[in-house]
Amino acid sequence: MPEVNSKKSYYLGFALLGIGLLIFYKTYNPEVLSFFPKCPFLSITGLQCPGCGSQRAIHHILNGHLVSALKQNAMLVIAIPYVSLGMFLDYKKSLSPNLLRLRNKLYGITAIWFILGLVVSFWIFRNISI
Question: pLDDT at residue 20 above 60?
Answer without folding.
Answer: yes
